[in-house]
Amino acid sequence: MAAALNPEDAPIPLVDLAAQHRALQPNLQRAFERVLASGSFILGPEVSAFEAEIAELLGVPHAVGVSSGTDALLLALLALGIGPGDEVLVPAFSFFATAGCVARVGARPVFVDIDPRTYNINVELAAARVTRATKAIIPVHLYGQICDLEALGKLNLPIIEDAAQALGAGSAPWQAGAGGAFACFSFFPTKNLGALGDAGLLTTHDAALAKRARLLRAHGAEPKYHHALIGGNFRIDALQAAFLRAKLPHLSGWNQARQHNARMYDRIFARAALPETLLRTPAVQKPNHIYHQYVIQTPHRDALQAHLQRERIGCEVYYPVPLHLQVCFAHLGEHAGSHPVAERAAREVLALPIYPELSASQIERVARVVAEFLRHFG
Prior knowledge:
- With 378 residues, this protein is an alpha/beta fold.
- The chain folds into two domains: 21-249, Aspartate Aminotransferase, domain 2, CATH 3.40.640.10; 251-375, Alpha-Beta Complex (Aspartate Aminotransferase, domain 1), CATH 3.90.1150.10.
- It has twelve helices and eleven strands.
- Helix 1 crosses helix 8 (238-247), helix 2 runs parallel beside helix 8 (238-247) and helix 3 (69-79) crosses helix 4 (97-104).
- The termini are far apart.
């Protein structure tokens, strides 16, 4: 008979969606059955209800459910009329979609280095890259901490907030979704509010932009088969909207649990007293960081990642290649050394488990393994 697994040795995943969904299974099942019985699977009342509920939560007048966070960015650019000959400022360190969508509409992504503590776009460097061709800026609220929206507003550019990782971050008047022409959210399953598939959201305070986005969301057709604009199929499924409605009331509690877990990590790492040259923990410079990821930085990242994997502790690199060094953007003429803070982050950052269902003992184990390993380099 095999020996029972010691809980201390049990794997700790980077994300555990099964734990979240077990608790919500009755509600998710009812949502599925409601949509199935309705026979309305594309847009319709389920989507309208979700848009109204999340708009109220975010404090915005207009919310447009879309097919993914990537499509939210693409739709925002289309709605603002950005295209060939235009430039859009983007951080050099982010998920690919931030810059990829700019290129997809024929515009030029102009990369800006990041702040070394928050990993968000460096506003002073962004100001220096503005030209006559600059038509917008896409700041990313990376890892769940909002950018300096007030300072970005002084650039007098349309702001498209990439808030894919920041639903519920910040506080009035500068919360995610408050500072731009558009804000773009993702409901990828591992996000703080995740669908059971792909889904996203576009928000705005401008009624005319909201109307244009809704038109572009469905091939620019109004009425059906009469196309005023060339849009696309960017519609959110009614089923995903129903699942998200079942999860939405829990978002605040989940975000608070992530914050609690982050404080536990902070306390344990502080007690370990490792120098910043070995370990940097997240710097909170804006209120209500929601910790989509808890990201540490160390020059021994690759060795630490391999060690955590041997210990069956989930971890991930977000992101291993800065945007300006991606092969598909080589024609833009950037090179290694162009944005040194982003390049260092790509070499040194590592995300640890932070999901709401983590236990105190799991957090203690992760932190202990990290600290003990890095202490050998001190």
